[in-house]
Records
---
Amino acid sequence: MASVASTYARAFADVVLSAHLDADRSLAELRILASLLAESSDLRRVWENPAIPADQKRSLLDVIAQRDEISKQVRNLVAVLIDHRRIHFLDPIIRQLEKELDARLGFAEAQITSARALGDAEKREFELQVGELTGKKVRAQYAEDKSLLGGAVLRLGSTIYDGSVKGQLERIKEAIGGN
């Protein structure tokens, strides 16, 4: 499954970049279609049913695309998925496409968990520091975890930077020989 999603995501990332599309808008349009598919078992049955002719499926897609102002390129990707009976891969393709576009556009995805809610100025400062660390533009997601006691934990891909009070206490405990 990963290779299917990866193949379509790489190909569509090529389309987005070569056609100078707004990457965020393309992703949003794909999420709209994925949401419709998830919420409507009837739509899912139609698009996944091999007995229904492809042109009828695409006609339904065209109605949805026009109603929701879906770009031609996003519509075409979904049509290809329908035609090749791979519409059930839409969610993994979207997740892979997000990663592919972030990599190509020079974004780093960061998850920042802090002991308390951060203000806008603190978030900007965090993103600036992470940007300096990675040399990339930062897309950060924030969460709150009171068990950290203070400070924050930064996750960049598989790397974790623990600057929390809880993490410091655990390191001190390990250093003095406790478990």
---
Amino acid sequence: MTVPLLEMTGIVKTFAGARALDGVDLQVRAGEVHCLLGQNGAGKTTLIKVLSGAHQPEAGTITWNGEPVSFSSPVAALRSGIATIYQELDLVDGLSVAENIFLGHELSTAGFIRRGRARGAARTLLTRLGHAEISPGREVGVLPAARKQIVSVARALSHQARTIVMDEPSAVLDHDEVANLFRVIRDLTAGGVAVIYISHRLDEIREIGDRVTVLKDGRTVAKGLPAKTTPTSEIVRLMTGRDVEYAFPPRGEVREGSPELLRVEDLSRRREFRDITFTVGSGEIVGLAGLVGSGRSEILETVYGARKPASGSVFMNGRRLRGGNVPAAVSAGIGLAPEERKSQALFLEQAVTKNVTAAVLRRYARLGFVNRRRELVDVRHQLTALDVRPKDPSQSVQTLSGGNQQKVVVARWLLRGCDLLILDEPTRGVDVGARAELYGVIRRLAESGVGILLVSSEIPEVLGLCDRVLVIREGRVVHQARADQLTESDVLDLVMEGLVMEGRASE
């Protein structure tokens, strides 16, 4: 039997009297991709923070490379060869690539930093990762997300890391970037590095993983399962404690003659998108499918008024909206749940109540006083309707899981009474059980007459949830059809067609 490179046994961690980890076990071998799965709140993040030295456990043992260890800080874990790359990368945008890679352990002689030596060493690491095109002297802040991730991996390797934890590494990557990330991971494991991979995307687990450990409610419910052969239904059952149907809610029939809510005519923004025309009817879910960078999110933000169009028009309920004016869009009945909910939609340190009523504060104010009782009644009604858990309106929104945070954003616009809800990557960072709940919420909203305009990087989600799909490529609508008339292969062919032709032309 192969001796584990890393073994965590009986790990216990308590916060404010509540056990986040209740005897968790994890065994990781050298040269494998070990996937750590569980719903939001299952204990994954707490466990990796214990491993990285950010948290100290109350009980349990960590054995690293055959020796019992106790890491007092993340620096101590790094020095021992355990590196963690969190979903929100901790790079310093104002520093260069090389400076970020060697941050905290700068290459120096007699107290002087050897910048040339650092750039050369950084270039060697980047070349090893297959990314020699990334300049060590370039400022990290100007790099796209995929290349920032490579810089984070290079930084881990600069510490001679033998175990690298990757927390939701594909969350902001498109299809080709994920494929490249997987190539990098396979190169690492071929060299004996162990990778602990955390993701909500079960198809990724199947493709890149070797073994799987599943957490639920702070406990290990399965460990060492074969990633490629364990049925998806079994993994879902272990994560949620119940069988979750992967089928989307039944697609309702949009009634003939359904009132037109939104009409977009020849909308364009320089270097982002051009000549975009489409409609959304009452009770209709319309999805935009395309690669990251194709202009999908920019179209949504322009409809919402967060960006000003160079030309074209947006009509809501027959009334033309002033471009680049969010208050005008909101007054017309448009709500937006943006891609980055934590930084763009939520007041993380504020209570759920404050987040839900943020768009309707005047409703509860009279003569300078806020009617807290009425506000609380309305918020509780929304929390119950959307099954937000826990239903405590006074709880800080940052303590909620990703799925429940998304429900809070939706609750804000339902309380406002919006006619059209724009959803940009609505299930990003949301576990599989909560995704099914969100799909149900979206479908019920449509059945109540709310129009939905949706962007998702996951093609099956667009096809399974939407009534009609617009395929976007390089800022233009290249195809439009009913969702039930398209397959995933159809959409991939359409979004990749231009890139394939460019590749052939360069051959």
